[in-house]
Amino acid sequence: MKILVTGGTGVLGSSFAALAKENGYEVVLASRNRPSLSPAEWTYLNLETGEGLSTALSGVEVVFHAATSPAKNTEKVDVMGTSLLLEECIKNGVKHFIYPSIVGIDDIPMKYYRAKRSAEAMIMESGTPYSIMRVTQFHNLVDKLISILAKFPICIVPTNLKFQTCDVDEVSETFIQIVKNGPLGRVEDFGGPEILSLKEMYMSWKEQSKVNRVLIPLPYFPGKTFKAFQEGKNTNPLCEKGLHTWEHWIQKKQ
Prior knowledge:
The protein is an alpha/beta fold. The protein is built from 9 helices and 13 strands. It has helices spanning about 10-20, 55, 75-90, 110-125, 140-150, 170-180, 200-210, 225-230, 245-254, and strands at about 1-5, 25-30, 40-45, 60-65, 95-100, 130-135, 155, 160-165, 185, 190, 195, 215, 240.
């Protein structure tokens, strides 16, 4: 079986591609820039323009659509790019379109999350056999956030934000099982094994990283988006859960 992985140089795309290769699948990574190290064949693809789509989808049975642009060009990549990709998938008779989405996009008023909702709707309405799984934030995302905050002698942390972070490799394992099962439509959400406040995560990170910073807690931060994260709208305590905790992940990272 041949799998095309869009966003193949990203955190999830590269993890999934490596695991798919280990499971014996033929994998093609698609991105604008060739990766310096790659576990699989690479092909050029620009989702903003559609350039490279026909070549990328040649002989492909499964598409794992991990390409995304959270900070810029979100509309072009996550919405218009997904539309172009779906059109080409229909032309090429792709048998399974797999889309990793995000837990909480119905309740958190972010432009990026609205784009993810639009992409989900297009996939469901396209007629292409699909599987969509929403996932909570990855451990490395919060690690990156805390690392930025801890660059300064005084670390100001919006302490009440809640996260249910998960291990990206465990997410990839779940998506590999979805490949094996075939199109399932909207599947159960996937999240980490615990829900923690950002303060709790910071304290664990600080202990493991041996970083000595003065913590200034911000128990309240204005805005609807921050309120949604404070209320845990980005979590799902009833979802399927991975095993690797935040503590386990930061210990392994050291």
